[in-house]
Design goal:
This protein is of the alpha/beta class and 309 residues long. The chain has helices at 64-67, 69-75, 79-114, 127-138, 159-165, 179-186, 224-232, 252-264, 269-290, 297-308; strands spanning 19-30, 33-44, 50-54, 57-58, 149-153, 170-175, 192-196, 209-215, 235-244. The structure holds S-adenosylmethionine (SAM).
């Protein structure tokens, strides 16, 4: 995590500024530039809430402190007292967040941890083709992006977040899953930040970004309209908000997929992946081969999963 990020981050609950404590630093080299980044540390809100920085990524979810319990216990002397205080004040919110985010975290965490950075394509798109598509989608020139700030909400594997930064814009990728760990490791551009967070409780003040961009994300949340309202105010006045999502289709293929989903959703995530791998992936790979196109089994699995989630 770059130290400059602290000024922009806010407590997701109270929107107060956070105080940084650094435990460990690491030197990261981007081309000719070397930056001393924070590998592990702690962000504390005036309300007493604790947000750990683990593996270079700030964890800004209300349940993050529980997920990194051992890490915090090792670094904070009176952690148990602080933990009790947070739980007694925010018990309801914490339980709600855990329940709401659990499946999404597991499911997308597994998907993006399977993705091989630098080798696999994202739904058949290379980084460069996604960058060009991004420019077309939001209808801007590369030149006009320089010096601005973009928030990539639900950044997934982060390939696009890092790619967009190559246009000279500072990018901030947030995802609820731990996909941001791999995104951070594989990022080769200095003007990119990754945060683990929940878009329904964004860790930023309103009107922070010139562009708020979210593709293929908010229909995966428990309440699409609520999600839209949680991110729309993050755009500066006169800025740009771009949201892409898909609507339910009612044809035979989609009805069959919805039916399948209603059943497979009940299985543990790992079982779901095995089922896709056995029943969907071979068919898909065969179809691709017949069309003379190439896709590896990971890319096919990620594609197949996209059609059923
Ligand atoms: C289909 S992927 C799209 C990823 C990325 N936008 C892209 O186009 O490559 C959807 C992503 O949304 C993330 N997501 C779902 N609910 C979220 C939430 N409440 N807050 C943040 N991210 C969320 C998932 O973890 C997943 O990585």
């Amino acid at each position: 995590m770059k130290e400059t990020l602290v000024d922009l981050l806010r407590c997701p609950l109270t929107k107060e500024k956070l105080t940084l404590e650094v435990y460990e630093r690491e030197e990261r080299t981007y081309g000719n530039t070397t930056i001393s980044e924070i590998k592990s540390g702690l962000l504390t809100a005036p309300c007493g809430y604790l947000y750990p920085i683990v593996k270079g990524v700030p964890r800004l979810q209300v349940e993050s402190f529980l997920e990194h319990d051992n890490f915090l216990r090792t670094h904070i002397k009176d952690y148990e007292t602080l933990k009790k205080k947070i739980i007694s004040e925010y018990d309801y919110v914490i339980k709600l967040a855990i329940k709401k985010n659990k499946k999404t975290k597991q499911s997308f965490g597994m998907e993006w941890n399977m993705f091989r950075h630098g080798k696999d394509t994202t739904w058949d798109f290379t980084k460069d083709s996604r960058k060009q598509r991004f420019l077309m989608e939001i209808n801007v020139t590369e030149e006009s992006l320089k010096g601005k700030r973009l928030f990539d909400v639900g950044c997934g594997n982060g390939v696009l977040t890092s790619g967009i930064s190559e246009f000279g814009i500072e990018t901030f990728g947030l995802d609820v899953s731990n996909s941001v760990e791999q995104a951070y490791i594989h990022n080769t551009n200095p003007n990119v930040h990754y945060i683990q967070g929940d878009l329904q409780l964004p860790p930023f003040a309103s009107e922070t970004f010139d562009i708020v961009y979210s593709t293929g994300v908010i229909h995966h949340t428990n309440n699409t309209e609520l999600s839209f309202s949680c991110i729309s105010g993050l755009t500066k006045k006169g800025g740009l908000l771009y949201v892409w999502l898909y609507r339910p289709e009612k044809d035979f293929k989609h009805n069959a997929l919805n039916f399948t989903r209603a059943i497979t959703n009940k299985f543990p995530i790992k079982v779901q992946y095995w089922l896709f791998l056995i029943f969907l992936v071979p068919q898909g790979l065969l179809k691709m081969r017949m069309r003379g196109k190439k896709r590896n089994w990971r890319e096919q699995l990620i594609r197949d999963r996209k059609s059923v989630v």
